[in-house]
Specification:
The protein is built from 2 helices and 9 strands, in the order αββββββαβββ. The chain is mainly beta and 144 residues long. It has a single domain, classed as Jelly Rolls (Sandwich), CATH 2.60.120. A hairpin with a 4-residue loop joins strand 4 and strand 5.
């Protein structure tokens, strides 16, 4: 993104609406792989600012002290630019925070409207099959 486009996204007179996209794998087999895609809607670009995750095993009730931490890596690819966000897959807790304490990106990430976010999950669990939901938190950016 060149400096002129960046100034456009920083322009406070443009309409911004809070928005969350979600990727998920509802049952990831031990040592298994899964892929989910998130379609960025055609009405606006999406600026990603924060990342969170939620994980459970068989829908079991959790508290803050019993929260499940997944032994799962992810690779996120912006198929619009065909760029991966990580040099290699990273463990979910390394890059995603919790709802109370989200991971804040050092630089917001632009996903153009109609592009696709592809998330590749790889489990390194020995026996359990977690359900994982990843929240991509940011805002829609409307150009007029």
């Amino acid at each position: 993104m060149n400096n002129e486009n960046l100034r456009d996204y920083e322009n406070p007179t443009r309409r911004r609406d809070f928005f969350v996209y979600e990727a998920q794998t509802l049952v990831l087999a031990a040592a298994g792989n899964a892929v989910d895609t998130v379609q960025i809607q055609a009405d606006a670009d999406f600026i990603l600012q924060k990342l969170t995750y939620e994980c459970d095993i068989a829908g079991a009730t959790q508290t803050i002290s019993t929260r499940t931490v997944p032994n799962v890596t992810v690779q996120i690819t912006d198929t619009g630019s065909n760029r991966q966000l990580f040099q290699q897959p990273v463990p979910i807790p390394s890059i995603f925070g919790t709802g109370e304490l989200p991971f804040i990106l050092p630089n917001p990430r632009l996903f153009m409207k109609t592009s696709v976010i592809q998330v590749d999950f790889t489990s390194f669990e020995a026996a359990v099959t977690p359900s994982i939901r990843l929240a991509f938190i940011g805002y829609k950016f409307y150009r007029y």
